[in-house]
Specification:
alpha+beta; Phosphorylase Kinase, domain 1; Aminoglycoside 3'-phosphotransferase, Chain: A, domain 2; 5-stranded antiparallel beta sheet; 3-stranded antiparallel beta sheet; 12 helices; 11 strands; globular
């Protein structure tokens, strides 16, 4: 079902309780493990629990998303909502905390939360398309989309740390774990990928050192790619909200990398280094960040991603491409 297909949604909501559709992406990703397959067998009961708890009329689930069952809904009070039932995993453990912090301040309004079942009830963003799907912005330069994203990122980072921040993971612990994986995977795959040992060593060292030299700590989104920025016209004017966080507490410069890499196609341009330099400055000016730190994080995370692709996906072609991108980022991290 498309996000704008209100007639189909209304017909679906009128059906009431029934069999639960599991989107292919969710079945493929979560169903690939024993724990995930067991969770999928419990999913109909979780959906019924949410339906009963909030008096929901549910539409067919959205097809996207590989770690949660997400569907449009109407509450008993007629609220236009989304119910999200998350497969329990470490990266999503702090999602409700972050969304409560950002509710109506850069994030969608969190209407309620059932922590026992990892279920969130959110006010629905409409029209709800992602940053790279906005027709008006697509007619303009990628820099205009990045300016929108930078302003939203600054809004998220301006939120004060909540009293429950102790329950959130830290960027430092996450990055330390990645550093170990970079070194281990490089031993197994670095030679076949033609990886520069100096680049790999620098990436691992940055993952360990950057958190300790951060000038401030905020709740970072953790996965601020263009698809996680949704258009919302609820106030009568176009605003943007950030969804699906993988929140941690730490260096705010950790966040921009997915935006800078995925808005437009910078590495297909004639001079990616110069383009990334100017775009990084734009985002950093809007979000109050240091471009050199953003580039350092981008380099380290790009190298880590390349080795992950080789180790976990066997995608040598994409891994080699990302190692080349890491070298580009390293020239900006000064």
């Amino acid at each position: 079902m498309t996000i704008d297909d209100d007639d189909a949604e209304s017909r679906s909501q009128e059906r009431g309780p029934g069999p639960v559709t599991v989107p292919d992406a969710l079945a493929r990703e979560v169903g690939s493990t024993d724990d995930g397959a067991a969770w999928l067998t419990r999913l109909p009961g979780l959906v019924d629990r949410a339906r009963t708890r909030w008096g929901l009329r549910l539409g067919e689930p959205f097809p996207n998303g590989a770690a949660a069952w997400t569907a449009p809904a109407r509450t008993r009070d007629g609220e236009d909502a989304v119910v999200k039932i998350v497969f329990p995993h470490e990266e999503a453990a702090g999602e409700a905390t972050a969304l409560r912090l950002w509710s109506a301040r850069g994030g969608p309004q969190l209407l309620d939360h059932d922590p026992e079942t990892w279920t969130l009830l959110l006010r629905r963003a409409r029209p709800g398309h992602g940053l790279e799907e906005d027709r008006e912005l697509l007619e303009r330069r990628p820099e205009d989309r990045l300016a929108v994203a930078g302003e939203l990122l600054g809004l998220l980072h301006a939120a004060p740390l909540p009293p429950s921040a102790d329950g959130l993971a830290t960027v430092a612990s996450y990055a330390e774990r990645l550093a170990g994986l970079v070194r281990e995977r490089a031993q197994r795959h670095g030679r076949t990928l033609g990886a520069d040992p100096g680049l790999v060593a620098e990436a691992a060292a940055l993952l360990e050192d950057l958190p300790a030299t951060a000038g401030s700590a905020v709740v970072v989104h953790g996965d601020l790619n263009p698809g996680n920025l949704l258009a919302d016209d609820a106030t009568g004017a176009r605003t943007w909200v950030a969804i699906d966080p993988k929140p941690m507490v730490g260096d705010p410069a950790f966040d921009p990398w997915p935006l800078l890499t995925q808005v437009g196609e910078p590495f297909r341009e004639e001079s990616p280094a110069g383009l990334l330099r100017s775009r990084s400055r734009l985002v950093c000016a809007a979000a109050g960040l240091d471009p050199s730190r953003v580039a350092a994080w981008a380099m380290a995370r790009t190298v880590e991603s390349a080795l992950w692709r080789a180790a976990e996906q066997g995608d040598r072609t994409r891994a080699v491409e990302e190692l080349s991108q890491g070298r580009t980022w390293s020239r900006l991290a000064v």
